[in-house]
Amino acid sequence: MWETVAQAVINGLLIGGIYALVSIGVTLIFGVVKIVNFAQGEFVMIGMYISFFLANQFGIDPLVSLLVSMPVLFLAGVLIQHFLIRRVLGPNDMPQIFLTFALSLLLLNLALMLFTANYRTVHTSYSDEALHIGGLYIPVAKLIAFVVAMALSGLLWLFLHTTDLGKAMRAAAQNRDVAMLMGINPNRVFCVALGIALALAGAAGSLLMPFYSAYPFVGQVFVLMAFVAVVLGTLGNVIGALIASLMMGVAESLGIQYVGADSGLIVVFAMLLLTLAFKPTGLGGGRAR
Amino acid sequence: MKKARKDSAEKPANQVSLRRQSRREFMIKTALAAGAFGAVPLRGWAADPINIGALYPTTGSMAQIGVGCVAAAKLAVDMVNEAGGIKSLGGAKLNLIISDVQSDTTVTRTETDRLITGNKLSAIHGCYASALTLIASEVAERAKVPLITGSSSDQLNKGRTYTFTPFARASQFARAQLQMSKLVSDTPKVAVIFENTAFGTSTSNGLKELAPGEGVEIVMFEPYSAGFTDASPLINKVKSSGANALFSVSYLNDLILIVRTVKQFGLNVSINGGSGGFVIPDFYKNVGKLAEGLQGVAHWNHDVSEDAQKVNAEFKKRTGDFAFEYAGGLIAQTFMLVDALERAGSADPQKVREALSTLDVSSGYAAMAPGGKVKFGPDGKNIYGHPVGVQWQNGDLASVFPKEDARAALLKI
Amino acid sequence: MMQSSSARNAILLAIGIAVLIALPMVVKSSFAIDIFIRILLFSFIGTAWNLMGGYAKQLSLGHAAYFGLGAYTSTILQIDFNISPWIGMVAGGVVAMLASLPIGWLCFRLRGPYFTIATIATAQALMLIFLKFRDFAWGAEGTTIPNLGTAPLMMQFESKASYYYVVLGLLLLGLLITWLIERSWIGYYLVAIGEDEDAAEAIGVNAPKMKRDIYMISAFLTALAGTFYTQYIYFIDPATAFSFSISIEAALVSIVGGIGTLWGPVIGTVLLETTSTLLQSWLGSSIGGVQLTVYSLILMAVILWRPTGLMGMIIEARQRFASRKPARA
């Protein structure tokens, strides 16, 4: 019995690590730029396709392709902020919401047009291997993904708290006008924020490739979980998003085990709705960091 | 108007007499185009091509299979036309009019309607997924056009007179799966997981009802929502149920994850995957060696008869992959339509329907089904229809069950 | 000047309605009528959305929840209790209205984009519920509407034209309601809330109540569309009824056409549906994703360069034209 629970928790944590990478990006963008990036999932998808093509054409392991997908997506983030998002920042919500939404639709359907709906799978030597530890199974690929995800999150935290640019980002998140008065260029900060967030999404994609298949709609599944995690963990709170993601992964896994195989999402939504009902600012407490 | 023209351009590639065809094409296109806007009433032209409608999802989530189905449909029509067309109608050729249902229920509704009202059809075949076929059959029933299909949902035989299903029904798949599990283990304990739309639900209901009668114990029975991020929780549940066999009624995407996750967990279960995503070449392409020894059930396989093997060779030449279940089945269906047209001596859909209801074949491509015989009962079911159990062996799908249809031995893995 | 322009508008409107009524009698092609029905239907859904999203700027992407509730209510009443879908349609609207209360209560606690996310989540949650509970609503398989041939009292017709008139009626209803609201104090308050909710409250507008009320109306109308759609395609299942793409299209046509204007959703639908049909006939549907790619590009273009949508462009053009004429008395 305990074995089953422990296994369910482990499963949940491992996939929660991926949710975390995606949701941290969303919450970072929201905290700093104050917009919601509906297209975050599609950048995960792009990361997956990049890794797929590198693996397929050149035999490069997806983990190594992180070195490609992350910078490429960082650059994409900078460009998108500079040329698109900057133009709709303002008091009105509508353009911001629908711009990233349109971007999401565009990227997904471009992928559909270019790559078709076929599933693209990569097999590595460790794709289907698992560690056996006392009756529990820990799939190697997922473990690596989890570890890298946590490492990247840790690096981000260090960046935000120890570097000047990181502190500038947090300042801009807390109070944009004062930050500007202090000489911080908001657009530059936003570009970095978007770049980092998209790079994390791309990392999630590359980390997923060893055990998941790429297809145009793959982003949609992860982005939903990401958004719920962001709300649960309080908008703009990076640690909150991380913890909420892990919690949701575990909740989903336990839900499938004990409520019903089709109830994973329902459990997650229940968590969301309860939070909205009783603590709409999220469990992270207080304002964005 | 443009769309109708585009449809009639979807003709078989090799034309025997090009110039005659292209002039005819031009006249038909114009008439259809004009007819589409109601300016000119469509007159039925006797010795002219007979329109067969084909509805498949060539885009959307089922696109991979839909594209294969369309290739098979074209192959079948080519085969018919090269053999001389419908002799009782003066050698009239079949004209395939294809429509993409985009793996979407709504689109299926409008496309079926558009296909029927925009063309003078004698019959339709489609749509692969039971959920889509159910809708198409509703429209066809109201429009009084016969629909022939390989979709397995038992609902397709209820309350309809224009729907014909020459192949095994979902409930029959279930029985076959149960019987196969007894061949692999003496005390099968089965975990059943299934995607929760029409396809998964029909098949799994059959499993639940028949298991006690077949002496098989079901230790887990769970629907799941297709398109999950991670199969681990599901497989964990399977593991904790103590099952030694796993029946997964799923489409391709989830199957890939499930099979790989079972391997990751080192779970020792024999997997029987029903049909759906299991029995298509893409499955092997995506899971590779993990597929070896996995079993499934299908309503058609390329080794059921010599005719099937001929068809398979031809299909392979055109597409590069072996002829999968639905593809081969729909080639047989085309020939069943031909048989009906020959006997009806008319392209009128009502007469074709009458002829289909009295179909009784046991040779030729029309009888290319497990068991080699097709005859429809009053509910549109083939009274001889039964599924064939298959197993992945050396990268190919071999029929292993029942004994009469087995072409290779069942490997116990 | 006011009188002659409103008289002119009234005449144009009357001509427009007459044309719309006459259309199915002139155009016989089933394919064309199907397109018209789609245009009218999505204009109606867009109009319903616009009340909340356009005027009050509460950008919901979860209106499919009400579409589905309407669809399921009327279908359940019809199949299980033999009640006519005409009654079922109104019942569905009421169910949607009632549902909008708790959903609104939950979602309005969030502002801006998080409101939007919450609405998406509620529509998804409803889909999940209807997928799971097979006992009262057929689960994931859905059900077809029993074939009754021609049964006007049960909202089934042999001819497509009849469906056309039903949805035309719905659209006119939606436009009428929008027009009445737009020119009443309700409309002004809604716009005030949309512009700046806190400021509106500061001057005495009861924002929560108004948001709740307009949400109910919007939900009611959307549910009517759900019933009609189900009757038209003879089929219902959770994936279709609560489909995210319905939520998207409702918002899309309103934004492209002109958010917060009476005719915006209508014009937006005409543009998008025509584009879609043309695309289909040029490219066939052999390449998936083309239609939505184009839609998303149009949407991005509108947002980046003409956020007021087509109606905004038309109004600007008219003003420029008017300012070129010599001033009237």
Protein model, in words:
The complex is a heterotrimer of chains A (289), B (413) and C (329). Chain A is mostly helical and 289 residues long. Chain A has eleven helices and two strands, in the order ααααββααααααα. Chain A has helices spanning 2-33, 40-58, 62-88, 93-115, 140-162, 164-174, 176-181, 186-208, 218-232, 238-258, 264-278; strands at 130-133, 136-139. In chain A, a hairpin with a 2-residue loop joins strand 1 (130-133) and strand 2 (136-139). In chain A, helix 5 crosses helix 6 and helix 9 (218-232) packs across helix 10 (238-258). The radius of gyration of chain A is 19 Å and the shape is globular. The termini of chain A are far apart. Chain B is an alpha/beta fold. Chain B has two domains: 2-168 and 305-375, Response regulator (Rossmann fold, 3-Layer(aba) Sandwich), CATH 3.40.50.2300; 170-298 and 388-405, Rossmann fold, CATH 3.40.50.2300. Chain B has a five-stranded parallel beta sheet with strand order 2-1-3-4-5. A four-stranded parallel beta sheet of chain B has the order 7-6-8-9, with helices on both faces. In chain B, helix 9 (252-264) links the parallel strand 8 (245-249) and strand 9. The longest helix of chain B is centred in the first third of the chain and has 20 residues, at 63-82. Chain C is mostly helical. Chain C has a domain at 30-243. In chain C, strands 1-2 form a two-stranded antiparallel ribbon. The longest helix of chain C has 27 residues, at 207-233. Chain C is globular. In chain C, 52% of the residues are buried. Classes of the chains: A mainly alpha (289), B alpha/beta (413), C mainly alpha (329). Chains in contact: A-B, A-C, B-C. Chains A and C meet through helix 3, helix 4, helix 9 and helix 11 of A and helix 5, helix 12 and helix 14 of C.
